[in-house]
Design brief:
474 residues; alpha+beta; 6-stranded antiparallel sheet; 4-stranded antiparallel sheet; 11 helices; elongated
Length: 474
């Protein structure tokens, strides 16, 4: 295999458990003065304890204070983001390991990175420094499992090799094997929550951890899979896709991190492997059903007016302030929606004493609870005198559909609306205009759900479905 020394010994890969720690890498003195390693079956060669972080650079790194149960895979994963790993030697009795990278430049990059970000394995800090040795020579017959793992990892790396002419150091900064994805949301007209991300990305494999944050006024997230292959599949399938129609576009890259360190389970971060973690801030986490409801709430309120701003209340996350374009639209929304049922809960809509929803001051992170929809493409009442003003009705089980392209048949629409979780009881195209139809769900609540999910749905041929409540029956 290219780039691998013939008598390389290896291990198995997993990840360092750190996200963005401000800690400086610790380097306490080794508690070991020397150790005996069998090299090439016969020679007994002593590896002296490498005590100094700032020793002469070497492509062999000395890793100490490893958890007793750590695997070769986890140690190898520490080096993968920086370049090809060519050898590993585990000294489990001493909780130590030696990791050999393909180039000295890759090893320098790795040491520099972990001098600013403390590496963790299994939630325990570990220590990395240059070794006195310039290469590892190990007995493959005594390290067969490690050898097999390294070859498997190298094979995966080979399938994602850089374009000819790219150096190892260049490819090291964009590892395709990381199980962690960095996600940025563009055109975020609707709130996107941690639970929404989990629902979307779980289709490609087990999601272990998610951390969300706001950076440069953009909502971002780090999401970790159990397997790098799942991360690659998700990136290929979802990069550039919209979460909701015409907005909330996903921009996805591989993170340089190989494992996330989640301290709290709340509405900003979640470790799905550690349900015992505290919530941290003492605030109630956002209920997934309510979060999903607010994520699409402007579709429902938008039937009665143009939603301008939404603010989910920090201490009461099942409530929100919603600013409409004018007082008349607020009255319409209140009279038609108060007491209706959505996501199994009764909606209560009242007029607020606040005249406007204030946006957070620049540089102030309000956890993404306030959103401006002033330029939303989903506004129905932008044009003065629009026919939409004449077709405002209370929620009903019958929906009015319009902007249907000629290629879409009744069965297509029945299937589409059945997939929202309800039952389609009846359907009828307009006799004179097949661009419009009436569709009846079994309950008003199912119709509300269908409208939220499918208004502005892309039916192809540059046709976005328009959905509203109808006063008619079929």
């Amino acid at each position: 295999m290219d780039g691998i020394v013939t008598d390389v010994a290896v291990g198995v890969k997993r990840g360092s458990d750190e996200l963005l720690s401000g800690s400086v890498l610790n380097s306490p003195n080794s508690n070991m003065s020397s150790m005996v390693v069998t090299a090439n079956g016969n020679d007994n060669k002593k590896f002296k304890g490498d005590d100094k972080m700032d020793g002469a650079p070497s492509r062999v790194l000395h890793i100490r204070k490893l958890p007793g149960e750590v695997t070769e895979t986890e140690v190898i994963a520490l080096g993968l983001p920086f370049g090809k790993v060519t050898n590993i030697l585990m000294l489990k009795g001493k909780n130590q390991a030696f990791l050999e990278l393909a180039t000295e430049e890759a090893a320098i990059t790795m040491v520099n990175y972990y001098s600013a970000v403390t590496p963790h394995l299994r939630n325990q800090p570990i220590y990395i420094q240059y070794s006195n040795h310039k290469e590892l020579k190990t007995d493959n017959t005594l390290n067969q499992r490690a050898q097999a793992v390294l070859q498997a990892v190298t094979a995966v790396q080979a399938t994602n090799a850089p374009i000819s002419g790219t150096t190892v150091s260049e490819s090291a900064v964009t590892p395709a094997q990381s199980p962690v994805l960095r996600i940025i949301i563009d055109n975020m007209y609707y709130p996107v929550t941690l639970d929404v991300l989990h629902q979307i990305f779980s289709k490609f494999g087990a999601v272990l951890k998610i951390i969300t944050f706001t950076k440069n006024n953009q909502f971002q997230a780090l999401l970790q899979y159990g397997d790098p292959v799942n991360a690659q599949q998700a990136k290929l399938a979802l990069d550039g896709q919209n979460i909701y129609n015409a907005c909330c576009t996903l921009r996805i890259d591989f993170s340089k991190l190989v494992n996330l360190n989640v301290k709290y389970n709340n509405d900003k971060s979640r470790d799905y492997t550690r349900p015992d973690l505290p919530s941290g801030d003492g605030q109630p986490a956002l209920d997934p059903a309510i979060a999903a409801a607010f994520a699409k709430e402007t579709s429902l309120l938008g039937v009665y007016g143009d939603v301008q701003r939404v603010k989910i209340l920090y201490n009461k996350k099942d409530s929100a302030l919603i600013q409409m374009a004018d007082g008349n639209q607020s009255q319409l929304a209140m009279s038609h929606l108060n007491g209706q049922k959505m996501y199994g809960k009764i909606i209560r809509v009242t007029l607020s004493k606040h005249q406007t929803v204030q946006l957070p001051r620049e540089g102030l992170d309000d956890q993404g609870l306030t959103k401006d929809f002033g330029n939303s493409p989903l506004h129905r009442f932008k044009k003065p005198g629009s026919k939409n003003f004449q077709n405002i009705f209370p929620p009903s089980a019958t929906l009015h559909l319009s902007n249907i392209p000629p290629s879409v048949a009744e069965e297509d629409l029945r299937t589409l609306f059945a997939n929202t979780g309800g039952t389609v009881k009846a359907f009828k195209f307009f006799q004179r205009d097949h661009k419009m139809a009436l569709l009846q769900m079994s309950t008003v609540e199912e119709a509300i759900q269908a409208l939220i999910d499918l208004h502005n749905y892309n039916l192809g041929e540059n046709h976005h479905l328009r959905v509203s409540f109808s006063k008619s029956t079929i």
